[in-house]
Amino acid sequence: MNLQTAMRQFSIKTRMRGAIAVVLLLLTLVGGTGLYGMLTIKQLGDEFIHHSLEETETFGKLQSALGAMRRASLHMLLVAGQADQVEAAYQKWQEALGKVRSLSAHMTEGEADEDNAVLARMAPDLESSWPADPESQK
Q1: Where in the sequence is the domain holding 111, given as residue range(s)?
Q2: Ordered per-residue pLDDT tens for the chain, 138 residues
Q3: Is 1 a member of any domain?
Q4: Number of domains in the chain
Q5: Cβ contact 127:104 at 8 Å
Q6: In this structure, is residue 59 part of a structural domain?
Q7: 20-52 burial, b for 16+ CB within 10 Å, e for fewer?
Q8: Residue 101 CB contacts under 8 Å (≥ 6 apart), including other chains
Q9: pTM (predicted TM-score)
Q10: Which of 99, 126, 124, 120 is nearest to 108 (CA)?
């Protein structure tokens, strides 16, 4: 029995309802596939924005900590004759250096990206920038 003969056995009303059901089924499949694709793209975009925003915020904090290190080192040079002020500036410098180290470590966590190479090149310069004892500056 061929399909056309089988379809003629149903009334027009039944055939029309069947056609509407097939159209609705196809519409649901296309809509569901589109919705799944849109949600996947939204999730990928949200992850990218979250990662970029967090990295940008950490980079801003790193810049601020490097600025604090620079201010403290310049202050040490300006008050070179006053041991108590040099010591206070050196403490601020060490605090800023600790913050730079922790932020650098935080930025290198996770997947490797282009800022990891920059931070790796920066680390030896930070370690050799000042001696461990402010008394050796006198």
Answers
A1: 10-137
A2: 688 888 888 888 999 999 999 999 999 999 999 999 999 999 999 988 888 888 888 889 989 998 998 898 899 889 888 889 989 989 998 999 889 888 888 888 877 777 778 888 887 777 776 655 555 544
A3: no
A4: 1
A5: no
A6: yes
A7: eeeeeeeeeeeeeeeeeeeeeeeeeeeeeeeee
A8: 126
A9: 0.60
A10: 120
Residue 22 lies inside a defined structural domain of this protein = yes
- CA angle 117–118–122, rounded 5-degree value: 115
Q: Is residue 4 part of a domain?
A: no
SS3 9: coil
CA gap 125, 110 in Å, rounded? 23
Q: Is the distance from CB of 90 to CB of 134 less than 8 angstroms? A: yes
Tokens 């089924």 belong to 25
Q: What is the pLDDT of residue 45?
A: 92
